[in-house]
């Protein structure tokens, strides 16, 4: 399927690895000029070269922390008028809410709610003027089914979800869409570190935790990052202009609800 976005420009936040990288790769395969981002310059450049080799796209790199004002300014300077914006940032740490002070909450909200909103604010009017824009926020399956130890993520990402629900309806008439992708368990470094922590706590091995976690999913496996990237690319396409304000859950069927 031709997604009709070759030649478009995309900013993909936190895209040096994991699901962000998968989104950048799939968009580049569709001929999109991608600007990728990460905190470590060496890692970002390694990923950029991998995407160049696979797609022939001349990838731009921006090494910065996108959750800071300086980082956002640097990223937008590299691409002030993107057609596509993929918001992404590492989730806050797990824990017990009784242990979190105000600064901990502020940091979580800044990274996973305020940062994407400020980036949307910076680019959405240009998208409206050009009559094309695709905004995709990578949030979490916890928005649909909160996970007790991820209270910081539950709260911050749910706040972003509420904001997007209103914004998406305001901008839809201009061929600008705004949607959320909600990943369940995908084969990423974050999942590995989570399962390693579980293994340490339970006195098991990573392999045992990996197998146990897979067994609880209806699909009996974890998601592949390229599956996630393909869903993102479709939402960014000309084919998806009538999809907006939605929360796409990619979790292998783990969420048990009807709605």
Automatic annotation (TrEMBL):
CDD domains: BKR_like_SDR_like
Domain of life: Bacteria
Entries under PANTHER family matching the protein: 3-OXOACYL-(ACYL-CARRIER-PROTEIN) REDUCTASE (PTHR42879), NADPH-DEPENDENT REDUCTASE BACG (PTHR42879:SF6)
Family: Belongs to the short-chain dehydrogenases/reductases (SDR) family.
Designated name of the protein: SDR family oxidoreductase
């Amino acid at each position: 399927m031709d997604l009709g976005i070759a030649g478009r420009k995309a900013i993909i936040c936190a895209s040096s690895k994991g699901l962000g990288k998968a989104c950048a790769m799939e968009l580049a395969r569709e001929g999109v000029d991608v600007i990728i981002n990460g905190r470590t310059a060496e890692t970002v450049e390694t990923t950029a070269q991998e995407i160049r080799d696979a797609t022939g796209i001349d990838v731009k790199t921006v090494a910065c922390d996108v959750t800071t004002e300086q980082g956002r300014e640097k990223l937008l300077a590299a691409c002030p008028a993107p057609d596509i914006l993929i918001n992404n940032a590492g989730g806050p740490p797990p824990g017990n809410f009784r242990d979190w002070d105000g600064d901990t909450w502020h940091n979580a909200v800044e990274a996973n709610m305020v940062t994407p909103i400020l980036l949307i604010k910076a680019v959405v009017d240009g998208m409206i003027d050009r009559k094309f824009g695709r905004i995709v926020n990578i949030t979490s399956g916890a928005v649909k089914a909160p996970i007790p130890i991820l209270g910081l993520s539950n709260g911050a990402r749910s706040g972003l979800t509420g904001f997007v629900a209103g914004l998406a309806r305001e901008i839809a008439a201009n061929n600008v869409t705004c949607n959320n992708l909600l990943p369940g368990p995908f084969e990423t470094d974050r999942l590995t570190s989570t399962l390693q922590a579980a293994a340490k706590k339970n006195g098991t091995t990573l392999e045992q935790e990996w197998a146990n976690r897979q067994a609880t999913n209806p699909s009996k496996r974890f998601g592949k990052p390229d599956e996630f990237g393909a869903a993102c690319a479709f939402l960014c396409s000309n084919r998806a202009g009538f999809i907006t304000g939605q929360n796409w859950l990619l979790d292998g069927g783990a969420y048990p609800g009807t709605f």
